Amino acid sequence: MLFPSRILTKPADNEMEICVFGPGYGESIVVYIPGVGWGIIDSCVTKIEGETIIPPLLYLLALLDPPYPPLSFVVLTHPHEDHYLGLNHIINEYPGGIERVCRYDGDGIRELKIFITKQRASNNNILPNLPQIFNSMDNAVKAGATLRRLGEMTSIIDLSNTTIEGYGTTDIKLTALSPSAISVKKYIEKLFSLFPQIGKEVKPGDDKLHNMISVCLFLKIGTLQIIFGSDVESGTDDNTGWAGILSNRDCPDLWANFVKIAHHGAVSGYNTDAWTKHIKRGKPFSAITPFCKGKNSLPADEDINNYKSILNKIGITTSLILSEKIEEYYSRKVITAIKSKTKSFKIIKPHNKIGFIRYRFLLDGTVTEELAESPAKWI
Amino acid sequence: MAYLTETIEETGTFSSLWREDKTKFIREELASNGEKSTESHIYNINDTFSLGHTYDIDNNIKQNLNITETIREWWRGEVLEVNDEEGYFVALLKDRKGIESIAEFDISSAFDNTSEKNIYLFPGASFAFSVFTRHGYGAPEDRSRIEFNTPHIWCEDDELKSKELYNQLFPNDQPLED
């Protein structure tokens, strides 16, 4: 049983749900918006007892009953593997169909595709599976879904005077706040600089550049304001990242009931001005999806302490378990060779469980559930 | 509930690191005393000597000296971070059973000199790390081997190749023009 039955309770019609998955390498958020329905922001995969699974898809299939309702929206926030793996499966295999597929699809995407192609032609398998994701989104559009091209101040959902049973009427707006036009321009310049030159070595380049076109989402319903920070970074100037979002004269007031903390809780995703606004009406609920790949995983302890100083408690979806007991895995001869070649060698131990952070809110702001399903926890 | 079938594309396969049409950098080391040998292959530049050519030194040894090797364990690796100041690089390793590890390798244990390192070692570089026992004359020797993929050199032909590849990868898009 991947999900214990005690957690498989549906939200009420007037309850907003935010369920954040982050298995250590990946992030996906399942949301239920009263008056709109279910949606998925990004996708991730994880391995449970050797089997690769897609937590957001399995969660919805376990929680909901046939006939499955259509997904109101599926969003790809930016082209990073830890945010898109499995998204094509969600689009192709979710039995209820998809109403809106949403991604940044403006200037630079053609260049991104050429960049991927040239890297593949050079045997660098960068951004694996991304072509399949783009193609599955295109095919969903051919099958009747609406393609929403996201960028600063573009709308995914814009409903007025929607009646929610048990609450009353409300406007419902789900809006992309980024990327800014300047971010896109800089992104294209960086991509061009990485295009192979005849006679020169082809190297994959710095993968972080794709954060420049990361889509931050802002949801307003009832008295709730929700921010999904994706991997938006603080900004290198007034026109990029969070600084770019805040400098847009049409940007809404960004106080929040809930914030999905940007860029896996890293300091690079922290913008003082943005957080001054987020906490303006009180400390929001929040979640972090760690990035556990490498020696210095995100968030660092100092990043967590920084957020703890301004927030009550933070849900963190998993933690990295490193074991130095390599004798449990390899023979003595192998260990001797490992030790002769490496300064340190640590096994990444899988949790073998799907953890998540789940919040439910009434539309007046009342919290009805705060759930940290192990290995997720509160910090 | 049934698990979903795995069709997630891997970021590379072990066998791809030993492509015959790809040159590579090999560093071999005796596990017991750190004795090293290096086999540095040349790029894919358009030259009859070096064009896509490689040779398997171990096969030559096997044929000529009747030496065999038993692979004890192997990993495919991805370089995550290079710390030149402290002389190490960090890599994510995945063994044949799918067990993942984080390892810090001494740069000096993988490369003899800076020029080699500058060619092969960068974040995102892929390599294979293997531990094996060599059998032949005398006592068996436990050795390790690290093999880096050589960066591809972009050639005029690659432009044409990438146009065809683009149409395969993105069939819904307008083809790339000449």
Give the SSE map.
The complex is a heterodimer of chains A (379) and B (178).
Chain A: E1 15-21, E2 28-33, E3 37-41, E4 46-48, E5 51-53, H1 55-63, E6 73-76, H2 81-84, H3 87-93, E7 100-103, H4 109-121, H5 130-142, E8 146-149, E9 154-164, E10 168-176, H6 181-194, E11 201-202, E12 217-221, E13 224-228, H7 241-247, E14 258-260, H8 272-278, E15 285-288, H9 301-308, E16 315-316, E17 322-323, H10 332-341, E18 342-348, E19 356-362, E20 367-373, E21 377-378
Parallel strand pairs in A: 3-6, 6-7, 7-8, 13-14, 14-15, 15-16
Antiparallel strand pairs in A: 1-2, 1-19, 2-3, 4-5, 9-10, 10-12, 12-13, 16-21, 17-18, 19-20
Helix pairs in contact in A: 3-5
Chain B: E1 24-30, E2 36-40, H1 57-65, E3 68-83, E4 88-95, E5 100-106, H2 107-110, H3 114-120, E6 126-135, E7 141-149, E8 152-153, H4 156-169
Report what the structure shows.
The complex is a heterodimer of chains A (379) and B (178). With 379 residues, chain A is α/β, with parallel strands linked by helices. Chain A has one domain (5-318, 355-378): 4-Layer Sandwich (Metallo-beta-lactamase, Chain A), CATH 3.60.15. Helices cover 24% and strands 27% of the residues of chain A. Chain A has ten helices and 21 strands. Chain A has an eight-stranded mixed beta sheet, covered by helices on one side. In chain A, helix 3 (87-93) packs parallel to helix 5. Chain B has 178 residues and is of the alpha+beta class. Chain B has one domain (20-169). Chain B is built from four helices and eight strands. Chain B has helices at residues 57-65, 107-110, 114-120, 156-169, and strands spanning 24-30, 36-40, 68-83, 88-95, 100-106, 126-135, 141-149, 152-153. In chain B, strands 2-1-7-6-3-4-5 form a seven-stranded antiparallel beta sheet. The interface between A and B is large, with 74 and 65 residues. Strand 11 (201-202) of chain A pairs antiparallel with strand 8 of chain B.
Could you list some keywords that capture this structure?
heterodimer; A: 379 residues; alpha/beta; Metallo-beta-lactamase, Chain A; 10 helices; 21 strands; B: 178 residues; alpha+beta; disordered N terminus
